[in-house]
Design a protein that fits this description.
It holds the Pfam family PHB_depo_C. This is PHB de-polymerase C-terminal domain-containing protein. Residues 176-363 form the PHB de-polymerase C-terminal domain. This protein has 16 helices and 14 strands. It is of the alpha/beta class. The strands form four sheets. It has an eight-stranded mixed sheet with strand order 1-2-6-3-7-8-13-14, with helices on both faces. It is globular and about 50 Å long.
Length: 365
C-alpha cells in the first residue's frame, strides 16, 4: 500500500501556461526510445564552420577555435559562444552571416571562438566552475589578456571571468546576455520562476545526469508553437521552387535541430542560482572560490540588445550598466531592431552594428 502524497504547495504547482510543457515532458518520458530513433532519422546534418580555422586547444569542455592571424601581436578577441543547447557555429553561421568573418573584415586580425562540446555521461558533474576554470586556462594560453565578446549565455560566463580576473579582460562586449535575470518580463524569466525546480531535476534524471538537448528544443518550440509546428511548414510549401529559400532553411535547420546535451550539474546550477535566485547580479554567486562582484569589472563595456528579443530582454542586458565598476563614459548601449539570434548572425546587424563594435574594440583603452 502506498502512502498518500501531501497536497502540492503553491510553489510546487505548475502554472496553467506551463501545463503543455509538463505534458510534453511526461509524453517524452514514456516514449523516449521511440523519439530517439525518430530523431536519428529526421535530424539534418550537424552544422559546420563557414570560415577556415584551426583548433588551438582541445580541452574537456571545449575546442578553442582560432581564426585569422595569431602573429599580429594584437590583443586576441575571444567570442564566448552560448552554451545553452546549440552549437557555437552561430558565431560563424554561414557566408554573409558570420560574426567571425565580420570582425576579421573590420580590423580585428585574431579571433577565437569557444566551441563548447556536447556533454557526455562523463561530463554530467561538470559545474559552472569547470567551464570558468577552462575558460581562464584558454585566456592564459593566449597570453593572459583578451577582449571578450559574450553571446547570450556566453555573456554571463564572460562577465564572470571579468569579475574574477579583471586584469585579464581588456574590454567586454555583452550581446543579448542575461546579466540581471530578474529584469524585464520575458518568457524565459517567467519560465525560470514559475516552473518548479523539481521539474528541471526530473528532466536531468530522465537524461541520466545530463540535460537532454531535445528537451530544451521542445521547450523553445513551445514558446512559439504556431510558428514552429504550422507556419514554417506552410512557408516551406509556398517556397518549394525557391532554391535560395530552401538552402537557407536547410542551413538553419542544421543548427537549430541539432541541440546539444548539457551537464546536469551545470544546467541545474544555472537555473537555480542564476535564473531563479539571480545570485550573480546580486553579487552573491561564488566562482572559483570567490564571491563574484560585478563592481570589479572596470574595463570598457559595450551592451548590445535586440528590440524584439524575447529570449534575453533588453532590460536584462542594459542592467549591467549599473552593476559594473566601469565608468559610465566607457559604456556603450546599443538597441537594434530584431530578435535574439539576429544579434549574432542577422545580416542587418552584422553589416550595420558589428563593424562599429569592431572599431570600438580597437580603440577601447
Amino acid at each position: 500500500m502506498t502512502e498518500p502524497h501531501a497536497p502540492a504547495s503553491a510553489a510546487e504547482r505548475c502554472p496553467p501556461w506551463l501545463w503543455p510543457v509538463e505534458a510534453a515532458l511526461r509524453l517524452t518520458a514514456r516514449n523516449l526510445d521511440f523519439l530517439e530513433e525518430a530523431a536519428k532519422i529526421s535530424r539534418p546534418p550537424a552544422p559546420g564552420w563557414a570560415t577556415a580555422n584551426t583548433v588551438r586547444l582541445d580541452l574537456p569542455t571545449m575546442r578553442l577555435r582560432e581564426f585569422g592571424d595569431p602573429t599580429t601581436g594584437a590583443t586576441p578577441v575571444v567570442i564566448d559562444a552560448p552554451y545553452a543547447g546549440h552549437s557555437a557555429t552561430i558565431a560563424d553561421y554561414a557566408d554573409g552571416q558570420s560574426l567571425v568573418a565580420t570582425l576579421l573584415a573590420n580590423g580585428v586580425p585574431h579571433v577565437l571562438v569557444t566551441d563548447w562540446k556536447p556533454a557526455t555521461p562523463e561530463m554530467r558533474y561538470f559545474s559552472i566552475d569547470t567551464y570558468l576554470a577552462e575558460f581562464n586556462a584558454a585566456v592564459d594560453d593566449l597570453g593572459g589578456v583578451v577582449r571578450l565578446v559574450g553571446l547570450c549565455q556566453g555573456g554571463w560566463l564572460s562577465a564572470m571571468l571579468a569579475a574574477r580576473f579583471p586584469h585579464k579582460v581588456a574590454s567586454l562586449v555583452l550581446a543579448g546576455s542575461p546579466i540581471d535575470t530578474n529584469a524585464g518580463d520575458g518568457p524565459i524569466k517567467r519560465l525560470a520562476h514559475e516552473m518548479p525546480l523539481k521539474s528541471y531535476r526530473a528532466m536531468v534524471e530522465m537524461g541520466d545526469g545530463l540535460m537532454p538537448g531535445r528537451f530544451m528544443l521542445a521547450g523553445w518550440k513551445n514558446m512559439h508553437p504556431a510558428e514552429q509546428y504550422v507556419d514554417k511548414f506552410v512557408k516551406l510549401y509556398e517556397n518549394l521552387a525557391d532554391r535560395d529559400y530552401l538552402d537557407r532553411t536547410e542551413t538553419f535547420a542544421s543548427w537549430y535541430e541539432n541541440p546539444l546535451d548539457l551537464p546536469g550539474v551545470y544546467y541545474l546550477q544555472a537555473i537555480e542560482e542564476l535564473f531563479k535566485h539571480n545570485l550573480f547580479a546580486k553579487g552573491e554567486f561564488v566562482g572559483l572560490g570567490r564571491r563574484l562582484d560585478l563592481g570589479r569589472v572596470a574595463c570598457p563595456l559595450y551592451l548590445l540588445a535586440g528590440a524584439e528579443d524575447d529570449i534575453t530582454t533588453k532590460e536584462q542586458v542594459f542592467a549591467a550598466r549599473d552593476l559594473v565598476g566601469t565608468p559610465k563614459r566607457a559604456i556603450v548601449e546599443k538597441l537594434v531592431p530584431g530578435g535574439h539570434i539576429g544579434l549574432f548572425m542577422g545580416r542587418r546587424t552584422l553589416s550595420d552594428t558589428w563593424p562599429d563594435i569592431a572599431r570600438w574594440m580597437r580603440e577601447a583603452a
